[in-house]
Specification:
Elements lengths: L18 E6 L6 H14 L4 E9 L12 H9 L12 E7 L5 H7 L6 H14 L6 E9 L10 H8 L3 E7 L3 H14 L4 E8 L7 H21 L6 E3 L8 H27 L2 H11 L16 E5 L2 E4 L4 E4 L2 H4 L8 H13 L11 H13 L4 E7 L2 H18 L7 E5 L8 H5 L19 E3 L16 H10 L3 E6 L3 E2 L5 E2 L2 H14 L2 E5 L14 H4 L5 E4 L11 E6 H8 L15 H15 L3 H16 L8 E7 L2 E6 L5 H10 L2 E2 L6 E4 L7 H17 L7
Parallel strand pairs: 1-4, 1-5, 2-3, 2-4, 5-6, 6-7, 10-22, 12-13, 12-14, 14-17, 17-18
Antiparallel strand pairs: 8-9, 9-10, 11-19, 15-16, 18-19, 20-21, 21-23
Helix pairs in contact: 1-2, 1-8, 4-5, 6-7, 11-19, 12-19, 13-18, 15-16, 20-22
The chain binds 4'-deoxy-4'-aminopyridoxal-5'-phosphate.
Length: about 700
């Protein structure tokens, strides 16, 4: 590999980390020996590899970690007879502690605390410091996969932070299967790739040689079968038991590992090939993005992983998230409780059809949702996206009106500036201008639009703001099946916050006109505005309420449409049924995750978190008000908006924001933030500061 490239050692400078993590199914399984032997095999294959221990415990206090210490001596002895790679020591230790114990304890005894993100940074800095001298690092963990780094994180978190393939080393003997299978399950759960599983015979058990041979062979067979069953093609390697580690032994081990060394060489090259540029190019060749051209291709960033309030790009850059993935990831990314619910339900039953069958995740979720919704809502219909939940709401309203003989009521009334989704029915009630109704003229049903609720949330209520709706209902009332709107916050139609008294007045007008009232809480639900549902700001109960987005904390697509008992009975009188039934209705995985998201909300930290976001965004965004080009600054709950006078250049701004290490995606005239609820306030301040900088520098016009 090295010899084949004329640019030699400098070619990897600035390249993404190229490494494999070596971990064990337990302590003392031969990890260090295997790492050393693989180092030899790689060096024999011409790969400039280095063995690195991010954390080493059991290093006597006050001493530098030198070749005299055990592990480095093992690494060095494995390659002692090979010619050295210029500028590259065989091994390196990044942090060492004296107590021979788990890293969390060894560090604590020296008054230190280990964090996976910091250790990952150590590794990346080390890789950079090698200045291209190394082509591949073998990162040897301490102990097994679940060895703690602190109360919250363990070795797996370091592996996940680095997103590396893992070489799992286990002892082969009695108990090997249990340890190996548990470790493989842990790796799979974290989405980490297995490079190989290597088994080294443990000390002979108290069985005869023949029985022992049978056990060892069966362990290998069983593990190969299990890996194949889970669709994993990683090899299971059998290594010899060696009495002494002399030159011949190292050679034997290295030969046994040479197919793996070969595979790693290709694997890491492929992994590099899939890095950002390649992925974006492939995307541009095949994939369509939201509201985007398939000809004038949109600028894209390739995301590799996520955690907390961070999105990690394939080039390793970590962005502070300001969008909660379009309102959905309210609890941040990879929340352990949401993932645990997902895994546990996946192990039991991912999905069954909902016609004629039911299950606990759906029933529990329906009951709990109704407890949180305004009183009077009694029945829940699960849908698979927000748009479909809106279609369901519109169909419910139509069937309800038909059920009571009001067959003329086939239209919907809605304020301008609304957004309800992209399917045809939902689109027909979106703002006709921003929803581009002209594109679909002739196809969309013609709905009745009234003035956007003009009275700001933060101003005294002006009853005249209801005049247009009143007039329209007086005029068209007999044709209207329902009025639909987003309560208090109009989202994608303009991020507009209006006075809750508008909803009270509108509710009364709907009752008078005999139309139903539908609240679309798909964006506003689950605490974002400072109330669990935005309807609470007005203290009114709609006839139908849609929710989605943050329902599953952004993990899976799920939405729900709830209605009152009166609506349900009206639809289903005289043996009628409601005519809708998606294949993935009440998907059990999504319902289970939604239940866990409700658990998080029920701990009631969200009120404090939203109040914190609101205060931080008021402070951070307010200074934008006086900048040229800014039309308005407004903040409500966990939503902060800087409205510009002119439409912004989304692509230029996205580029600027990513360069500044934040993920914010503006649209039309709006630069807005809705960070995950638990975002550290320092990150929220940073998001605001970057928005201010973008406006100040005029990055919204051309990019700078
Ligand atoms: N209603 C509102 C208020 C929304 O904000 C959205 C999504 N932006 C939808 C409906 C449509 O939801 P989905 O994208 O899940 O179809």
């Amino acid at each position: 590999m090295r010899g084949a490239d004329s640019t030699g050692g400098t070619r990897r400078r600035g390249c993404p980390l190229c490494a494999v993590f070596v971990s064990g199914t337990g302590t003392d399984v031969g990890k260090t020996v295997l790492t050393a032997a693989l180092l030899r095999a790689l060096r024999l294959a011409g790969v400039a590899a280095q063995a690195v221990k991010p954390v080493q415990t059991g290093v006597p206090a006050g001493e530098e970690y030198t070749a005299q210490q055990a592990d480095a001596r093992v690494y060095a002895s494995a390659v002692a007879d090979l010619s050295p790679v210029p500028g590259l020591a065989p091994a390196s230790v990044l942090r060492s502690f004296s107590l021979p114990a788990s890293p969390h304890l060894a560090a604590a005894c020296q008054g230190k605390r280990l964090e996976a993100a910091e250790l990952a940074q150590d590794v990346l800095k080390h890789w950079e410091s090698l200045n291209g001298a190394a082509e591949l690092l073998l990162l040897e963990g301490a102990g097994g996969l679940c060895v703690p780094l602190n109360e919250r994180e363990d070795m797996l978190d370091l592996m996940a932070a680095l997103d590396l393939p893992v070489l799992l080393v286990g002892g082969n003997g009695l108990g090997a299967l249990n340890h190996a299978l548990l470790s493989l399950a842990a790796l799979r759960d974290r989405g980490l790739g297995l490079a190989a599983l290597a088994l080294i015979p443990t000390q002979p058990a108290t069985v005869g040689a023949e029985d022992e041979a049978r056990i060892l062979a069966d362990n290998l067979r069983m593990l190969r079968a299990r890996l194949a069953r889970s669709g994993c093609d990683a090899p299971v390697l059998e290594l010899p038991r060696l009495a002494r580690l002399d030159g011949a032994a190292w050679q034997r081990l290295a030969e046994a590992l040479s197919p793996l060394a070969e595979k790693l060489t290709h694997w890491t090259e492929r992994a590099r090939g899939e890095m950002a540029a390649d992925l974006v190019a492939r995307d541009h060749g095949t994939v369509w993005h939201p509201y985007a051209s398939a000809v004038a291709l949109p600028p894209l960033c390739a995301a590799r992983s996520s955690h907390d309030n961070r999105i990690v790009l394939t080039d390793g850059r970590e962005l502070i998230d300001g969008m909660s993935s379009w309102w959905s990831a309210a609890h941040g990314y990879n929340h352990p409780r949401l993932l645990a619910a997902l895994r546990s339900q996946a192990g039991r039953m991912p999905h069954v059809m909902f016609g004629g069958l039911t299950h606990a995740p759906a029933v529990d979720l329906a009951e709990r949702l109704l407890q949180h919704m305004p009183p009077g809502l009694e029945r829940v219909f699960f849908a698979d996206s927000g748009s479909v939940a809106v279609e369901v709401a519109l169909k419910m309203a139509l069937q309800y009106q038909q059920g009571r003989g009001e067959t003329r009521r086939t239209r919907f009334l809605t304020p301008r500036g609304g957004y309800h989704g992209d399917t045809l029915g939902a689109m027909s009630v979106c703002d006709p201008v921003t929803g581009m109704h002209s594109l679909f003229a002739g196809l969309l049903p013609q709905q009745i639009f009234v003035e956007r609720p003009s009275c700001r949330f933060d101003m005294p209520f002006d009853p005249a703001s209801l005049d247009d709706a009143r007039r329209a209902l007086e005029h068209h009332g007999q044709e209207v099946a329902a009025v639909i709107l987003e309560p208090v916050v109009q989202g994608a139609g303009g991020m507009w916050f209006y006075h809750p008294d508008y909803l009270r007045g509108l509710t009364a007008l709907c009752r008078e006109a005999g139309t139903l009232l539908i609240f679309d809480e798909i964006a506003t639900g689950f605490g974002r505005t400072g109330k669990f549902f935005a309807a609470e700001w007005a203290g009114v109960t709609p006839d139908i309420l849609c929710c989605g987005k943050a329902l599953t904390g952004g993990v899976l697509t799920l939405a729900a449409t709830a209605c009152t008992g009166d609506v349900a009975r009206g639809i289903c009188g005289a043996g009628r049924v409601f005519m809708h039934g998606p294949t993935f209705m009440a998907n059990a995985l999504a319902c289970a995750v939604a239940g866990a998201a409700l658990d998080i909300l029920d701990e009631n930290r969200w009120q404090m978190q939203i109040a914190g976001l609101e205060a931080a965004m008021r402070k951070g965004l307010e200074p934008c008000r006086s900048l040229p080009g800014v039309a308005d600054v407004r903040v409500l709950g966990g939503i902060g908006v800087v409205e510009m006078e002119q439409p912004v250049n989304t692509a230029a701004l996205q580029r600027f924001f990513v360069e500044q290490g934040v993920w914010i995606r503006p649209f039309n005239r709006l630069i807005y933030l809705m960070p995950p609820y638990a975002s550290p306030l320092a990150d929220v301040s940073r998001l605001c500061a970057v928005v201010k900088e973008a406006v100040h520098r005029g990055a919204y016009r051309t990019g700078v």
